[in-house]
């Protein structure tokens, strides 16, 4: 179970790297930047696929996408000097709240996981 969460964290990290490089490559127009972007985003999906072998798809995708949005926003603010509007801040807070709620609904106990597996 812990390995699935490591794969999910790697999926999030590689997505953030790919999208950050995308922004930089679109500004400079470098071909290598696009290659790194495509490779990072593809690797992100590979890690996500490994994570969903254990974590339910809905939970993994919600965490992957929501965390990615939050981290990309932080990169935009601190690296690319983007200024967030109040509406953007409220939207991000709602996304974080949604991630927390989705994650809270996930079965984490090994005994509960066995019961859930027996139902299938």
TrEMBL record:
Membrane topology per record: Multi-pass membrane protein
Database matches in InterPro entries: EmrE-like, Small_drug/metabolite_transptr, Small_multidrug_res
Keywords, comma-separated and alphabetical: Cell inner membrane, Cell membrane, Membrane, Transmembrane, Transmembrane helix
Organism superkingdom: Bacteria
Gene3D superfamilies membership: 1.10.3730.20
Subunit structure: Forms a complex with MdtI.
Organism for this UniProt entry: Rhizobium herbae
Chief location of this protein within or outside the cell: membrane
Location of this chain's protein in the cell: Cell inner membrane; Cell membrane
Transmembrane segments: 34-52, 59-83, 89-105
Record-stated family: Belongs to the drug/metabolite transporter (DMT) superfamily. Small multidrug resistance (SMR) (TC 2.A.7.1) family.
One Pfam match: Multi_Drug_Res
Protein name: Spermidine export protein MdtJ
Manganese is among the record's keywords: no
